Amino acid sequence: MAKLGERIERYSDPKIEDAVARVEAVARLMDSAMAIPGTSVRFGLDAVIGLVPVLGDLLSQLISSYIIWEARQLGVSRLTMARMIWNSAIDTIIGIVPVAGDAFDVVFRANMKNLALLKGHLEKHGHVVRSPRSGPIIEGTATRVG
Fold first, then answer.
1. Short-list 84, 96, 36, 35, CA closest to 60
2. CA–CA dist 20, 43 (Å, integer)
3. Are 27 and 115 in contact (CB under 8 A)?
4. What value does the mean pLDDT take over residues 83-87?
5. Does 36 reside within a domain?
6. 15-46 as b/e, with b when 16 or more CB fall inside 10 Å?
7. Does residue 140 lie in a domain region?
8. What is the residue range of 75's domain?
């Protein structure tokens, strides 16, 4: 729920809104779905799948490619696409290194970076609609009593 004074953000097209929701779900699942108990350290399936040498990192890359595919469907620029591919490539290449690569997966969060790039592109190209939120919105009619 939005806090008092916070701006409400939505997308100009329901198809864009749905695509961003899918990308956000995958990014959070891969990068920050779980927490180490007693700490604020979050990690996702990327780090868990990456524990399986090489094959796990390749599977993780395949899942991360979905985010890039959705971004392409939404028309991100070539530069943004290149940055997203770079993030995923770095995550996969370093992730292949045993132990250190798994720790890197927890810290780097390529999928969340790619989600931010996608959202930035959509905002830059006018697909984000913001409205100020000054208090609760009440719809309906009112009748004065007394």
1. 96
2. 21
3. yes
4. 98
5. yes
6. ebeebbeebbebbeebbbbeeeeeeeebbbbb
7. no
8. 8-132
The helix/strand/coil state of 37 is coil
pLDDT of residue 13: 83
Neighbours of 56 (CB within 10 A): 21
- In angstroms, the first-to-last Cα distance of the chain is 35
Residue 146 lies in a domain: no
Residues 6+ apart with CB under 8 A from 93: none
Q: Is 138 a member of any domain?
A: no
Averaged confidence pLDDT in the chain: 87
* Number of domains present in the structure of the chain: 1
For 132, the enclosing helix (H) or strand (E) is strand 128-132
Which pTM was predicted? 0.81
Which residues are bridge partners to 7 per DSSP?
132
